[in-house]
Write a structure and sequence with these properties.
With 80 residues, the chain is of the alpha+beta class. It has a single domain, classed as Ubiquitin-like (UB roll) (Roll), CATH 3.10.20. It has a three-stranded antiparallel sheet. The radius of gyration is 14 Å and the shape is elongated.
């Protein structure tokens, strides 16, 4: 996911994985809906006004009720 922040926004790097997939992989099986790669942390960039908004945006796209876990959320201070 590519995020481009506007003047009022900042870019956040969010690390996310799926705990259900992680459990399946440890049991040497696969999840019915998500690929095994979701056992590992994936990083997504989110453009938001603050950390709370970034967390809301990422959990809307990757809902906790489907097993997704936010492992990290940090402001990305790199300039592109």
């Amino acid at each position: 996911m590519v995020a481009v922040a506007t003047k009022k926004q900042k870019t956040y790097a969010v690390g996310i994985y799926n705990k259900e997939v992680r459990h399946c992989v440890k049991q040497n099986s696969s999840h019915l809906d998500f690929a095994d790669e979701w056992a590992d942390v994936h990083y997504q960039n989110v453009a938001a006004r603050n950390e709370g908004e970034a967390l809301t945006l990422i959990t809307d796209r990757y809902p906790p009720e489907k097993g997704f876990v936010v492992a990290s959320l940090e402001r990305d201070t790199r300039r592109f």
